[in-house]
């Protein structure tokens, strides 16, 4: 079946957030890891989110990857493609939001593109083209000190114009509050005046619903999960989506096999979740210094898990309290120690899968990314949420057969998160 909505996300966590938002708003959604193989067999879905890592790469590389992802999505039938950016408009004067937006629009036949990073649920609103993060204009928010993309201007019409060839205009809240007809008229007037991208105000979700309806009449839009919400609700309202109450339930059809939890997050919430898990399942605390010293600690962990896993879920954790983490970082460097431990936890996850684990919970954003890369999982169907922002995922096109995963970053989930996740994964 043809997909209705395609999206290209400029980073993986943003892709997951969007895929979860689309699912919660009624679309059956698959998230791919990178540009999928032409032959990837999709289940019956309404939307596909292609996860790329192009937020901070050179603009030409971002354009090449995004246009190639768009070709894949168009071939699968997507009539509208959302370029998913960060809700804080992370970019520089060199890109990549402008160059990618223009390249996608050009490849899709041109026209005007609606652009809005508004996502009211997380406090991102746009008024008269100015982005607010919580109660602060973007340039006074912590984003002004972002290490890669410091944001010194809250006026997105100016910000986008600096990284675009074409002219940038504004659709202000007055037009949006007047409804889809007024937005369409304004968009048409801007297009006739030679504008190729229109930054749109949005403060409430209803503004995004209005924008979503009009964006669907164009081939390309650029925005954060908030615009995704607007597009999803507009598609549902249009009657083009089959009622999909069953979508998440379908994603959690039992897969059998063994279950395990691998943790690399050192967040307060994860440390607490590990303490709670210890009461009901075997937990192995890895020795981070030994992990960095060589492969013995990994082999010992696999053997420890192998002895216990047939009897029930086991937990293997690199996670440690802040003092231990700081000490390790001062000895080996922050990046090097983090990367080495991610490699170790991903090897452990892959070995557990090789030993029959089909239900896997991974704690830690980077830790999850490394595990998914090592397992070479091509895509996921998004299921119901275990906790806010953390859905159950069902693998699509996985070489080891169907698996259920929960990938939890940082501070997400309540203290019984691990048991709650496993209770939804059979
Ligand atoms: P979160 O989502 O909580 O930020 P991440 O997985 O993204 O979790 O980041 C945690 C980082 O800490 C990873 O790079 C991981 O490898 C690293 N790490 C895990 N355990 C330790 C430890 N004991 N000491 C130092 N770094 C660690």
UniProtKB/TrEMBL annotation:
EC number(s) per entry: 2.7.1.217
Keywords for this protein: ATP-binding, Carbohydrate metabolism, Kinase, Nucleotide-binding, Transferase
Name under which the protein is recorded: 3-oxo-tetronate kinase
Four-carbon acid sugar kinase nucleotide binding domain location: 260-418
Protein family (similarity comment): Belongs to the four-carbon acid sugar kinase family.
A family per Pfam: SBD_N
Signal peptide: none
Molecular-function annotations in GO: ATP binding; kinase activity
Role description: Catalyzes the ATP-dependent phosphorylation of 3-oxo-tetronate to 3-oxo-tetronate 4-phosphate.
Keyword NAD: no
Source organism of this protein record: Rhizobium leguminosarum bv. trifolii
Enzyme class: transferase
Residue stretches making up the Four-carbon acid sugar kinase N-terminal domain: 5-229
InterPro entries hit by this protein: 4-carb_acid_sugar_kinase_N, 4-carb_acid_sugar_kinase_N_sf, NBD_C, NBD_C_sf, OtnK
Catalytic activity: 3-dehydro-D-erythronate + ATP = 3-dehydro-4-O-phospho-D-erythronate + ADP + H(+); 3-dehydro-L-erythronate + ATP = 3-dehydro-4-O-phospho-L-erythronate + ADP + H(+)
